[in-house]
Structures are given as structure tokens and as C-alpha cells.
Sequence to fold (411 residues):
Amino acid sequence: MARILPFTTDPHRETRDLMPWLITGRLEPEEQARVEAHLAACEECSRELAGERALAGEVAELPIATGIGWAAMRDRLDTAARQAAFVPLSPPARRRLTVRKIGTMLAAQAALLAAAVTITLRVEAPTAPYHALGSAPAVMGGNAIVIFRPDARESDISRLLKANDARLVDGPTAANAYVLHLPAAGRTQALDRLRGDAAVVLAEPLEAAALR
Amino acid sequence: MSDGSVAHRQTGDIGNVATPEDLRLFAGVRARELDAFEALYRLYHPRLARFLLNLLRRPQMVEEVLNDTLLVVWERSDTFRGASKLSTWIFAIAYRKAMKALRRLDEPVEDRDAEMRPSDGDAPDAPLGRHRTQEALLAALAKLSPDHRTVVDLTYFHEMGYREIAAIMDCPVDTVKTRMFHARRHLRRLMDGELADWL
Fold:
């Protein structure tokens, strides 16, 4: 019988069906008025409402939580950007690629990052030899660019610089890139080591021409 | 699932369009500002994580689907026109991604005849202690179909109206009400022993 009746003509059924949203206060005023009018007159529905409130409260308080966060998302964006913008790169072995088909999805972001690096380099690259305070004739231009992970610690950065005999020439740029000077002889190997480190997002050679 | 795409759009939409806050937040995302995206991520991450974990029941899968969802938000930001609430748009993407992930597992997505069969749940002999109620409720939720679980969670945890849920699940509003009714009936039957503690 109920099947052939339009839904709203049966206040008992309407109340039964709309009860959850009465509890959460998500009914429209006229719906709420109809449901409340029926509840005032129907003991069965009132009883059910009490049980339903308890269920609603329990569901809302269920401890459901995950341990995933922005760092992982940012890592995905960075990884994707790096993959799309600077190929080929040797991916750090321990960084898990969880993204499928991501290269094309984030091409725009990658292009943005690439552009930002380029623009920043053009604006901030030293046009004259860099003079460090307190060291008279320090003449050292950058020949590599590195982006560390956002959560890289100072101790990681310091360790990587020392291990590769690198000097910090400039940065962080607007794109959070650092310009380094690496010993010319072992630059390729040093860049490989940097790329292989989990704290490094990007490590690329920087040629003199790129600075002009 | 797609049969309600027209029906639910014809229903009233009180509170179902983008709020100024939605639009302000999303303007930055559309302008490809990473800071704005991070703000949106931090706002939606906890809700989506809860929503997806409830729906998928697999933490590893949740991370992938959640991040896939937010990547779509980032990448396809131009397709959000403000015709729905931002949360509706984002949750709908998450729901579609999650259902796709479930289908990849080759698991049944919905047992449409489930309501017609007698319950195979065992009613406990005695009421469990209050401290075990949540555990029992989680187990009871796990026995529901993903669609039924989704409606319960969107209603009671995310406090969404049935119209918004219909938009997210792309089904008629009456389907949402029916799913909710059957889900409640199943839960209360499965939780029979605990009900006494609740009341």
C-alpha cells in the first residue's frame, strides 16, 4: 500500500525517513514543522527518535582518523613537478612514487615551478663575483641549484653541503632554491649524491650562460 | 547511480550553493597559489580522511584516493563554477574516486537486494559495556554496503542535508532517504545489545 502512495502523504513514513536530518538540524522549515507535528502525536516515532539520536551521537564520535597529511601531499606535488619539469633525473630510491599518471596532471604546476626557478635565477643571480663579508677576495659564482625538501632540517642541509664540499652562494630564492658552488672537478658526482639524498627535491647544474 | 542526476538538481537548493567563503578560498587555488591550496588542503583533509576511511576501510587506499581527489581539485579547479557548495564538489570527486578504487578491488559496491534478506548478524546475548560500543558500531558499519555507510557518515558525522548527499552520490534524494533508512535499520539491529546502554 505504501508503495503506491506519494511519499509526502504519509506523515509517519516521512517522519521516519527524515528523522536523521531532524536530529542534525538539516531540514527545511516546512519539513521540520511537519515532522515535529507528527512526532508530537506519534509515540512510536518519538521512541524511535530517541534511539536514533543515540545512534547519531555514537556515529559522530567514532574515532576514525588517518595519519596522512600535508607533508605527503606536498611531497607528491614536488615529486610530480620535478618529474615533469626536469627529466631525466635520478629518483631517490627511498622515495615512493604513489602517483600514477601524475606527470601530465601537474604539468602546469611543474611549468610554474620551472618558470619560477628561471625567473628567480635571472633576477637574483649575481652579475658580479660574490663577495662574502670578512673574506677579502672570495670570488665564487654558483654552478649548481638545489631545492631541499620543505621539511629538511638545517642539520641535513649543513651535512650535505659539507659532504659535497659545497658553498652556499645564494638563496633561498622565491622558489626556495639555493645556488651552490661545487668543486668543478667533481660537480657531476656531487649532484648525483645530492639527488640521491632524501632531503633534496632537485639538484641541477647551473651553467654560466644560464645566469645571464 | 546516474539516474538521479536530473532529479536531485530539481530539488530545492537552500544552502547548497557556494558560500562567499568558499569562493574566496577557491579563488587562490584557481590562481595556482600553493598557499591557498595548502589552506584548502588543511581544511578538507580531516573531513575527507574520515569520509574515505569510513567508506573504504583501508588506510593505504585512503591516502591514495584522498590525494588523488585533492590533485583533481588542484588540477581541475577551473571546473568548479560555484553552482554547488565547495564541499559538495570536493566530496563528490572523493566519492567517485573511492567507488572507482573499490571497483578495482573487484568487490561488490552495493547489494541492491540486501534489504530484502533476513539479517545474518548475530545479536549479542548480553549488552556490551559502554566502552565497547564504539567497537561494535564500527563492526556494524563494516557490514553495511559502502553506499549505506557513506550516507550514514555524511549525515551524522559531516552533518550534510540529504540534498547535498544526493548531489555527492549522484542519486535521487529519495534514494538517499531510503539508503539511510535501511542503514539505520541494519545498524540498530546489529547493535541490538547496545541499544539498551544508549537509552
